[in-house]
């Protein structure tokens, strides 16, 4: 026989004030047993505290309540962390059993090196007493029986699919102004109504098996298709009976305007959905002048070409839901079908009580469905169902992070697909290799600070030492012994030079006055001066290397040959830069300018080439 554990303990139930009053009465001359009986404190407990007070000669030096925290395993913060862990596991649809919770508590104590009872170490889990006390301290936790949920349904409702649905819904809302008030927004869905009800809970004696009479073992299926509007209205339902031919007496007692259909299986199919769409158009007066939105799931019976053509011709925009998301996004599933099934089962039980010994048939279901339909399809229920899904009023942020927790388990798997990984490398230009993957617009935010001078051409940045080396080899120079200061020419990028200024000790060749380059002769259209500022270290040098506006005439017919070399042998300091050359002027041939964060003492300026003015 299992051991019965006490529901409540008899020790430690007194407060500090009660114990203090009891001790004061003992000091006044009353017997301990009489005081214990009056204050409802155990005699042994009161006697123990009286001895402690007598020894210390004051109640201020004695702790008047038990110190149970001395044997406590976890602190308040650690228990709160455990509580959040248990709650998150349950919200992710991977809830822990009582045994799993005890194992997690033990593992937490081991990892944090917390002192624990010896029984925890022997059993490698926390004790059952600890779990009971833990649940009492945290009333937000309870032992519940979860509903079964398939893996597809748990992982399909994620942020990506919800975002796509609301993007499509927003696009549809923008098509017509009549969709704003919700009077033209509808939801369609089917549910199963069978001839065997689900018994409700009843009161009976303990220890006995209690049964409930039903009309059959398995029951016969009749499909009920409901259509509701975001304005709080419900259209007459569609009933599909498991018969080859439909008879009018099958819908006796159903709501007025109910459409009756028949199929051998009793389920919705493509042929019957055509009649359902016509029933919807008839009751909503949908047309191209009076359009409407119909939201439904993407079951194969709903994707009938004939039904879709009829809907398109009559101004009906069909918006389908992502698979396995109807439990959260479909108003009928969210706020209508649950109370509908409850009222339907109650109506069937009432029918069985009024007709003892008789079973429910498919010909009796229409009346039961009509009773539940009227009690369920209230404006309040319908409006709240649309509001809870965020369809109307439109609210794409209606779902919180807790709603997406079940899909968080497979979020990594859904994200790390080969397509996503390959596209990520391709977008950065890493593989396949593409140095031109970024456009000028990508560099616009850095244009303000990346260049020390606004006149520096955009395409002149980030030139490697190897590029400069090739330019120096191809460009004639009179400085045969010049070398670049800083890192080697094999370095891929510019490095910051030391603070030493090479201009303080110029070479002999640098002290020579450069010769004035020959001026090209041209008899046609004048152009502005090629260079607006000096490139040398002094104003005198700058004058020697500038072209006179009146003498520098350039024309389209003549081309300047490569022999024209301007400033080829001069050294250029980065803080002295030419103005931006226009197309009708001349551009630099891979000008080795560095970016704003690098500094080079001297650079050999490349030669200039002509540019056509097409």
Describe the 3D structure.
This protein is α/β, with parallel strands linked by helices and 614 residues long. The chain has four domains: 51 residues, no CATH class; 67 residues, no CATH class; 230 residues, Nucleotidyltransferase, domain 5, CATH 3.30.420.10; 177 residues, no CATH class. Helix content is 36%, strand content 8%. Strands 4-3-2-1-5-6 form a six-stranded mixed sheet, sandwiched between helices. The radius of gyration is 44 Å and the shape is extended. The chain starts with 15 loop residues before the first helix and ends with a strand. 22% of the residues are buried. The C terminus is likely disordered.
Lay out the secondary structure:
Blueprint: H1 16-27, H2 32-39, H3 43-56, H4 76-91, H5 98-111, H6 118-123, H7 128-137, H8 151-156, H9 159-173, E1 185-194, E2 221-229, E3 234-241, E4 259-262, H10 270-284, E5 292-296, H11 305-313, E6 316-320, H12 326-329, H13 331-354, H14 362-376, H15 379-389, H16 405-408, H17 411-415, H18 418-428, H19 465-474, H20 508-511, H21 539-544, E7 586-588, E8 608-610
Helix pairs in contact: 1-2, 1-3, 2-3, 10-11, 13-14, 13-15
Helix-strand makeup class: alpha/beta
Poorly predicted tracts of residues: 458-466, 475-512, 519-614
**Secondary-structure element order, N to C:** HHHHHHHHHEEEEHEHEHHHHHHHHHHEE
**Largest sheet strand order:** 4-3-2-1-5-6
By CATH, the architecture of the largest domain is named 2-Layer Sandwich
The helical percent reads: 25-40%
Binned strand content: 5-15%
């Amino acid at each position: 026989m299992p051991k019965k554990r006490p529901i409540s303990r008899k020790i430690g139930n007194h407060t500090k004030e009660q114990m203090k009053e009891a001790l004061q009465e003992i000091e006044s001359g009353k017997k301990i047993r009489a005081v214990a009986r009056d204050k409802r404190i155990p005699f042994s407990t009161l006697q123990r505290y009286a001895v402690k007070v007598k020894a210390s000669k004051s109640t201020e030096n004695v702790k008047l309540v038990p110190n149970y925290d001395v044997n406590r395993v976890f602190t308040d913060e650690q228990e709160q962390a455990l509580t959040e862990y248990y709650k998150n596991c349950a919200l992710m649809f991977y809830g822990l059993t009582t045994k799993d919770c005890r194992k997690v508590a033990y593992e937490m104590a081991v990892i944090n090196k917390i002192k624990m009872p010896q029984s925890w170490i022997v059993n490698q889990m926390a004790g059952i007493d600890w779990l009971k006390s833990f649940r009492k301290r945290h009333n937000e936790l309870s032992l519940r029986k979860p509903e079964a949920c398939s893996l597809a349904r748990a992982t399909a409702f994620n942020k990506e699919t919800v975002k796509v649905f609301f993007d499509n819904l927003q696009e549809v809302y923008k098509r017509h102004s009549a969709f704003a008030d919700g009077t033209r927004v509808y939801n369609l869905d089917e549910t199963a109504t069978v001839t065997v009800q689900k018994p409700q809970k009843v009161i009976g004696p303990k220890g006995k098996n209690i049964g409930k009479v039903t009309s059959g073992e398995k029951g016969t299926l009749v499909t009920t298709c409901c259509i509701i509007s975001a304005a709080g209205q419900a259209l007459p339902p569609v009933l599909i009976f498991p018969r080859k031919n439909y008879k009018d007496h099958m819908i006796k007692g159903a709501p007025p305007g109910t459409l009756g259909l028949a199929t051998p299986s009793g389920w919705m199919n493509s042929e019957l959905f055509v009649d359902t769409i016509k029933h919807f158009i008839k009751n909503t007066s949908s047309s191209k002048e009076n359009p409407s939105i119909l939201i439904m799931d993407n079951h194969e019976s709903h994707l009938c070409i004939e039904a879709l053509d009829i809907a398109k011709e009559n101004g009906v925009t069909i918006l389908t839901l992502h698979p396995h998301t109807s439990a959260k996004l479909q108003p009928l599933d969210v706020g209508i079908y649950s109370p509908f099934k409850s009222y339907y089962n109650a109506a069937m039980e009432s029918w069985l009580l009024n007709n003892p010994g008789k079973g429910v048939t498919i010909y009796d279901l229409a009346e039961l469905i009509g009773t539940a339909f009227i009690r369920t399809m209230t404006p309040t229920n319908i409006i709240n169902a649309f509001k809870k899904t965020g369809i109307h009023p439109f609210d794409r942020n209606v779902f919180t992070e807790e709603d997406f927790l079940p899909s968080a388990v497979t979020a990594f798997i859904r994200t790390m697909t080969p397509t996503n990984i390959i596209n990520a490398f391709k977008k950065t230009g890493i593989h396949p290799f593409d140095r031109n993957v970024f456009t000028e617009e990508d560099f616009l935010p850095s244009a303000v600070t990346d260049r020390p001078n606004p006149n520096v051409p955009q395409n002149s940045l980030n030139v490697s030492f190897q590029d400069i080396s090739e330019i120096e080899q191809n460009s004639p120079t009179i400085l045969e012994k010049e070398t670049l200061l800083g890192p080697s020419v094999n370095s891929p990028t510019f490095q910051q030079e030391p603070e030493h200024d090479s201009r303080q000790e110029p070479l002999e060749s640098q002290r020579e006055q450069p010769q004035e380059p020959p001026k090209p002769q041209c008899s046609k259209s004048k152009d502005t001066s090629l260079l607006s500022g000096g490139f040398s270290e002094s104003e005198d040098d700058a004058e020697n290397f500038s072209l006179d506006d009146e003498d520098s005439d350039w024309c389209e017919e003549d081309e300047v040959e490569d022999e024209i070399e301007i400033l080829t042998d001069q050294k250029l300091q980065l803080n002295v830069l030419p103005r931006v050359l226009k197309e009708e002027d001349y551009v630099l041939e891979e000008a080795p300018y560095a970016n704003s964060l690098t500094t080079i003492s001297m650079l050999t300026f490349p030669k200039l080439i002509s540019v056509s003015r097409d």
